[in-house]
Design goal:
alpha/beta, 6-stranded parallel beta sheet, two-stranded antiparallel ribbon, globular
Length: 193
């Protein structure tokens, strides 16, 4: 029985539409699978300490799913725990992308108020793996992503399985069409609805 762990992006949460679509799909098609999407700390080192504790000693096969900043986190975890990961429009250089958000912030999903500092950008940089195991990844990218350049992901994860959705955005409207691929990662065959 596979466990799917969804890591949300920056200023997001477990209530995000992609997380809910994934949960609903797995519940309908693979009810024996389990799914979790924890609320991650807004601080990178804390978020990864949280996920390291979560995964340490886990007894079932795990597939990571990470969206945007969650894709960056999923990469670090995939390398650390030798896990497969599905990366949806993953952040490649979040320490650069998020620098413009330094200061007080409010997460609209959780209502949490917090402050990002420059030391948090250093924490992000420290989470960049020294090498990647391309065979562990499936990239799902939108060419009209208004937040991140999909071509950076193609270059960074060279050799990884890649699905490019032409004209799709950062939200990735076509994500529901990709969901059957989650079961293929572990060799499962989707049940008939």
């Amino acid at each position: 029985m596979t466990h799917y762990l969804y890591l949300h992006g920056f200023q997001s949460g477990p209530q995000s539409l992609k997380a809910q679509e994934t949960r609903a799909y797995l519940h309908a098609i693979a009810p024996e699978a389990t799914f979790d999407s924890p609320q991650l700390s807004p601080y990178p080192a804390q978020a990864m300490a949280q996920m390291t504790q979560y995964l340490t000693g886990f007894q079932r096969p795990v597939v990571l799913i990470g969206s945007s900043l969650g894709g960056y986190y999923a990469t670090w975890l995939a390398e650390r725990f030798a896990l497969p990961a599905v990366l949806i429009n993953p952040a490649i250089r979040p320490e650069d992308d998020l620098a413009r958000f330094i200061g007080p912030l409010h997460n609209p999903y959780t209502g949490e108020h917090y402050t990002l500092g420059w030391h948090h950008m250093d924490e992000l940089l420290a989470l960049r793996p020294p090498r990647l195991t391309a065979a562990n990844y499936w990239l799902v990218l939108g060419t009209a992503d208004e937040v991140l350049d999909w071509r950076q992901a193609v270059r960074y994860y060279r050799g990884a399985a890649t699905t490019v959705l032409n004209g799709d955005d950062h939200r990735l409207q076509g994500w529901p069409q990709c969901l059957p691929g989650l079961l293929a990662i572990t060799g499962q065959v989707p049940a008939r609805p």
